[in-house]
Amino acid sequence: MKFIHFQQLKEQALAVCQEEGRPFPDPDQMNPIVLALIGDSVFTFYVRMRLLPVSSHVQVIHTIAAKMVSAVMQAKAMHGLEKDLSEEEAAVAHRGRNAKSIAPKSASVGEYHSATAFEALCGWLLLKDREKRLEEIVDQAFKLIAREMQEKNDDVRCR
Question: Which has the closest alpha carbon to 93: 148, 29, 36?
């Protein structure tokens, strides 16, 4: 996308922000990368809230949260969750996994796509007002990731 085109899109988006009463787009028709953007925010917020009782030190909470919401950990969570997804949820995750995106250096392409699938699912659940199911998914993901991090920590201590 050329810079001038980006500037025009940004200006249009900012103008729309001034309008009130605009409905959300249908989550089933949204770009899965946009769903993933929303889902990433949802999961990050959930993780930080769950970590509040762990420490009163911001740096500790931030360090643990950053690791938990990383593409690598989200991919592990997605793999653990896949078997329990409904057909509709699996289809949303599939759309997220297949979305065109560029993987960061911190994760493999496969991990990044799996993490995008997880985030898209979280975003879709939020926008579909399926709060109970969203809470089940993020809670299970949190537990899977915490277990994985604990096991890795135990491995380091044993050496």
Answer: 36
